[in-house]
Amino acid sequence: xxxxxxxxxxxxxxxxxxxxxxxxxxxxxxxxxxxxxxxxxxxxxxxxxxxxxxxxxxxxxxxxxxxxxxxxxxxxxxxxxxxxxxxxxxxxxxxxxxxxxxxxxxxxxxxxxxxxxxxxxxxxxxxxxxxxxxxxxxxxxxxxxxxxxxxxxxxxxxxxxxxxxxxxxxxxxxxxxxxxxxxxxxxxxxxxxxxxxxxxxxxx
Length: 204
What we know:
The protein is an alpha+beta fold and 204 residues long. It has two domains: 1-60, Arc Repressor Mutant, subunit A (Orthogonal Bundle), CATH 1.10.10; 91-199, Trafficking protein particle complex subunit 3 (Muramoyl-pentapeptide Carboxypeptidase, domain 2), CATH 3.30.1380. Helix content is 45%, strand content 19%. The N and C termini lie far apart (59 Å).
């Protein structure tokens, strides 16, 4: 039905679509309602000014196919490879992550270290890092059990991991949090990355 509408140079009525597809008009109505609700088809003015109720006319919304295959991993690899070829790529990756971190939602109330860390854990969890709070020798840490960009990070850790570090630093900075991230040890264990937190208000 969507293909028929896309192929037509003019809007089609329910009857015209039904005839073209050799189905009952009620079937067409049912599927048209779903396509309209999904934003893929729109109702248009029939332009009829004669007696009687004008037929409903429909046209495909002109846009790229949103049901097509996505290749975000390929895009991530292209961008990380391009960034890796840049001079001072580590600093640029860190800055890119920091800029994105500034866009993350701030805690609803207060800016204490505990609230800031808890909120950061929640944000990282939403992003797919599976974070967990840890303490080692009295130092606060965040363990990251999952990497949303694992396949790219395994081959481009020098780019992807600084982006993650910058993201955390940028978020805490934008929240004016009295805590920062000193460093991020990528793959500190086979199933764990470790972020070391500083309660001095600034990361080194």
